[in-house]
Amino acid sequence: MQIWVAFAVALFAVPALAQQDARDMPAGVTERELTLGKGQWAIPAIVTLPLSRKTVPAVVLLHGFGPGSVDADVGPNKIFRETAWNLARRGVASMRFEKRTSAHARLFRERGAHATVAEEWLDDALAAVATLRRQPEVDPRRIFVAGHSASAALAPRIALETAAAGAILVSGGSSSFQSPGAMIRDQANYVASLSPDNQVAVDEAHKVALEARRLDDPLESRDSVVLGHPLWYWRQLSSFDPVADIRMLTRKRRPVLIVQGGRDYLVGPVQWRGWEATLGSNPAVTRRLLPNLNHMMQPGTGKMRPEEYGERRPIAPAFTDLVAHWVLRGK
């Protein structure tokens, strides 16, 4: 039994092909393929648009940890494609793109160096906002940055740097990068608790928990590899403080939406309470806990299981309806 740890293992690495076909695109929705960036690091991107006679708001969709296809393929699901289509049906445009570390995995291997945080997320996110502003159907004053999972903690900073209209944090922890070791240990222990009689699962959880402790060890070398990434990379991530960035955003009168699934064990109740404790009195921050949804905003019952990533589960309309309504209202 594998432990699918959000920070340690790619959540998108489920060995199955997505079944959704582009021909299933709903009526009233259109898409445009384009390229982000130039030269050897250029990546494919798609702008999804509602058919409208007026300009519309838009959302940039950002991947979490690990590989990320343009559609965010997760098992038999295309998470970003489905999200983009649902948003467009409700009058909101979006841009999604392949992560640079996926599109150019060979180049990174040949270079022999781990991607920086800027290379993995920031540079292309900045380019995506700038490119969306040039789309004639998009209102350049109403572009929002939506980060999922790990990139939720980066979305407020990206929104600040691009003067975006606001930020959307989906399945993101309130202390994700400040205490990643503790969060990963919680994830590992949860998965082990699902099968307490499975000694292999329990042993694996213990192994992951021990490895995660190295993230908090000041004596570890910056070049040590911990949970698949060099320690200097983890420290780059730790320099981001989403709570501070959200406060700065809201002082500039740019609203923030925080969405979490009630069945999400990768970002669980402790992280949700953290948002309440740090931002609960901020009127420009909207927080919504959707009880029946998992980490990918898919519906289910009972405890979330890692196996859900390999099952066909459509994105919950409650999630995309919430995002569209919030974006269209601008708050």
Model description:
There is one protein chain. The protein has about 325 residues and is α/β, with parallel strands linked by helices. The chain has a single domain (about 20-180, about 230-330), classed as Alpha/Beta hydrolase fold, catalytic domain (Rossmann fold, 3-Layer(aba) Sandwich), CATH 3.40.50.1820. It is about 35% helix and about 20% strand. The chain has 11 helices and 12 strands. The strands form 3 sheets. It has an 8-stranded mixed sheet, sandwiched between helices. A two-stranded antiparallel sheet has the order 4-5. Helix 5 (about 155-160) packs parallel to helix 9 and helix 6 packs antiparallel against helix 7 (about 200-215). The radius of gyration is 19 Å and the shape is globular.
Q: Which structural category do the helix and sheet elements fall into?
A: alpha/beta
Question: How do the helices and strands follow one another from N- to C-terminus?
Answer: EEEEEHEHHHEHEHHEEHHEHEH
**Beta-strand percentage range:** 15-25%
Low-confidence stretches: 1-20
Helix content: 25-40%
Q: What gross morphology would you assign?
A: globular
CATH superfamily: Alpha/Beta hydrolase fold, catalytic domain
Number of domains: 1
Largest sheet: 8 strands, mixed
Mean pLDDT: 89
Question: Strand order of the main beta sheet, please?
Answer: 1-2-6-3-7-8-11-12
Distance between the termini: 42 Å
According to CATH, what is the class? Alpha Beta
> What fold name stands as the CATH topology?
Rossmann fold
CATH architecture: 3-Layer(aba) Sandwich
Provide a count of the helices: 11
